[in-house]
Structure formats: C-alpha cells, structure tokens
Amino acid sequence: MRLLILHTRLQPPINESIFTCAGRNKMTAPATTQTTHLLRLVLSCRRISAQVTCNSSNSIVAIASSTEQEFVKDYIAKLNRFPRSKIYWDSRIASRIGDKIGIRLRETGISTVGIDVQEELSRPIYYRKMLGPFYESVKRTGITINGAEKLIFLG
C-alpha cells in the first residue's frame, strides 16, 4: 500500500488592510476629490438590488434588495395580479430599497457615496423614471451621492 503524504504550505500572515476600507477608518482624512465608495444598482424586471462597494478592495460594504423578506408580500401580490405585469417592482419599492441602503450605510459610518453617471444615463427611460425616488430616499437618510446632480429623472 502506498501512503500519500500531503504537504501544506505555510501562508504568510494576512494583511488586514486588504479587507478594510479607507473611508471607514477614522484615522484617515476624508477624500475630497474622489469617493471611496461606489453605489451600484442591479436592475431586472423581477428585482432591484443596490450595493455599495469599497473602491480600494472591491468588497461589498452594504446591500439591499427587493428579494428580502419584507418585500416578498408585494412580490407575490404583483405575481398573482391580473392582467400580468412584466416588471415586479416600482418606484415605491425602489424608494424603500433606498431607505434600507441609507440606514445600513449610516450604521457602518459611511456618509458619502459616488455613482457611475454614464452607467445610470445609459439605462432605459422606464427604469430611470422609477429610480428618481430611490436616490431621493437615499438623500433623505443623510447620505451624500456624488454625481446624482448630473442625472435627469423624468416623471
């Protein structure tokens, strides 16, 4: 019988600065020209998801989605509605998602996020109409959104 011997390599200690965001460290000065957090929206006909990522480590800092437990009742109501709808979220759901992501950002101590303006302007018009209340509800929670002033919301 042969014995199989596995060798394990010793790993160097993990550098903790990889996992921390510069914007969350209280010892660093706030960045005035470049935001350290990016607000990204993932939209489909069935759900809306907002996530805030750290630019330095690309890790997700906060996330809110319409697939969370409190939105299931609304989703089932729209799913069973007649005549059937192709989009299962609306501006009211988007506003509630904005409130949730704003509260979660406040809990982590983040007060400023940035957005990719070109990506937001390239969205179809029917999505942009429903995203106006999302950005307004994030602003109502006290989070500053860099780049939102360049967006044009219709309706």
Explain how this protein is built.
This protein is an alpha+beta fold. The chain is 30% helix and 17% strand. The protein contains four helices and five strands, in the order βββααβααβ. It has a three-stranded antiparallel beta sheet, with helices on one face. It has a two-stranded parallel ribbon with strand order 4-5.
Query: What is the makeup of the main sheet?
Result: 3 strands, antiparallel
Give me the secondary-structure category.
alpha+beta
What's the β-strand tally?
5
State the share of residues found in helices, binned by percent: 25-40%
Dominant shape: globular
Gap from first CA to last CA:
76 Å
Strand order of the largest sheet: 1-2-3
* H/I helix tally: 4
Mean pLDDT over the residues: 81
